[in-house]
Specification:
This protein is α/β, with parallel strands linked by helices. The protein has two domains: 3-117 and 353-368, Enolase-like, N-terminal domain (Enolase-like, domain 1, 2-Layer Sandwich), CATH 3.30.390.10; 121-342, Enolase-like C-terminal domain (TIM Barrel), CATH 3.20.20.120. The chain has helices at 61-77, 87-90, 98-115, 120-124, 143-156, 171-181, 200-204, 223-232, 246-254, 265-268, 271-284, 297-306, 355-361; strands spanning 3-21, 24-38, 43-48, 130-132, 134-137, 160-164, 186-190, 214-215, 237-239, 260-263, 288-290, 340-342, 362-368. Helix 9 links the parallel strand 9 and strand 10 (260-263). Helix 1 (61-77) crosses helix 3 (98-115). The protein is globular and about 60 Å long. The chain binds N-succinyl phenylglycine. N-succinyl phenylglycine binds next to loops.
């Protein structure tokens, strides 16, 4: 393919209920969608996972638009005949900005797969047609509110529960939820960097709840802090924010800072780097799971295909579209049945767009030539 035009489309979608993490509360999502158009009419969509503000990682959605317009897209336009698999190398001279790079690679991959009338699951060579589905539960005003939310998700059939934690919202909520769901259901926690090295003894109190893992308790850069926690605690330490590439994955594992890896394609620069991280972890026997970034049906479909690779042995944050959206922008939103979601098999990344709904939620469109 030769890069022709890039459509930048901003959509705003309300969440069905507020989602609070240790870095803030969200009631809606301002999402950048990108459409890659090849000069021969190939077309595909990517979804950028960057938030409106740089509170999860350094990238934010307005910044992503600038980087795409002034740095990424000109390089792809100038690159001649390319395939999606070439994009990471073409963009390698640009430092950072994995979420911007991931969005455009995802759109090019969708365009390429559709042009070849094939789908992501065949591209990845996966054999599973369903993957277990976990749900992420935000911080609630009271423990009673939390318990009734968790009860609802258990009724919906989720295979595991992930609780957002922060200082003063950790040991007691986890104790109560473990008592509610019983000893056998998968339970894990995610701190989104809310703790420090001084909290290691405190966090070890979580060991009694038989958690699948504790995710990113300390700062993105604090690899040594995570290694110390991993040595002190029987709960496996999982990294999310710290993992921005295959290289950071290797380093964190070698240093004993990560016993489990959360793979988010957007955070690591795309689905192809995500696959490389998966392959590396599979070789080492380090379990991985697919994280979520409140994606629409576009990202959710692609994540389900990725999560069907063999090394994804833990349930991902691939919940039903209805967990976050009253109406998705795809015609075939992900649903959860008996704890799992189907790996989609429509051409491209696996979904069909609901064009009316897409128009309704769009508030700005720009075209880069
Ligand atoms: O299921 O899509 C989902 C949400 C899962 O909790 C979730 N994501 O820290 O992993 C996270 C968190 C997140 C959401 C992070 C949005 C950044 C943005």
């Amino acid at each position: 393919m030769r890069a022709g035009r890039l459509e930048l489309r901003r959509v705003r979608m309300d969440l069905v209920s507020p989602f609070r993490t240790s870095f803030g509360s969200q009631t809606d999502r301002d999402i950048l969608l990108v459409r890659f158009e090849g000069v021969d009419g190939e077309s595909g969509w990517g979804e950028c996972v960057a938030l409106s503000e740089p509170v999860y990682s350094a990238e934010f959605v307005d910044g992503v638009e600038l980087v795409l317009e002034h740095h990424i897209w000109p390089r792809l336009r100038a690159a001649g005949d390319i395939s999606a698999a070439d994009i990471a190398e073409i963009l390698e001279p640009l430092r950072g900005h994995p979420m911007a790079k991931a969005a455009v690679e995802m759109a090019a991959l969708d365009a390429e797969l559709r042009a070849n009338d094939t789908d992501l699951r065949s591209y990845f060579g996966v054999t599973r047609d369903r993957v277990p589905s976990g749900v992420s539960v935000g911080i609630h005003p009271t423990i009673d509110d939390l318990l009734s939310a968790v009860e609802g998700y258990v009724r919906d059939g989720y295979a595991r529960i992930k609780l957002k934690i922060e200082p003063d919202w950790d040991i007691e909520p986890v104790r109560e939820v473990r008592a509610l769901i019983g000893p056998d259901m998968g339970l894990q926690v995610d701190a989104n960097t809310a703790y420090g090295r001084d909290d290691i003894d405190h966090l070890c109190q979580l060991d009694e709840f038989d958690l699948l893992l504790i995710e990113q308790p300390m700062a993105e850069e604090d690899i040594i802090g995570h290694a110390r926690l991993a040595a002190a605690s029987s709960t496996p330490v999982c990294l999310d924010e710290s993992i921005v590439s295959a290289q950071t994955t290797r380093d964190a594992i070698e240093l004993g800072a990560a016993e489990v890896i959360n793979i988010k394609p957007g955070r690591v620069g795309g689905y192809l780097e995500a696959r490389r991280i998966h392959d590396y972890c599979l070789d080492l026997g380090v379990p991985v799971w697919c994280g979520g970034m409140l994606e629409t049906g576009i990202g959710r479909a692609a994540n389900a295909a990725l999560a069907a690779l063999d090394g994804f042995t833990l349930p991902g944050d691939i919940s039903a579209s209805a967990r976050f959206w009253s109406r998705d922008i795809v015609l075939d939103p992900i649903t959860v049945e008996e704890g799992s979601v189907a790996v989609p098999d429509a051409p491209g990344l696996g979904y069909d767009l609901d064009l009316d709904e897409l128009e309704r939620v769009t508030y700005r469109t720009r075209l880069l030539d």
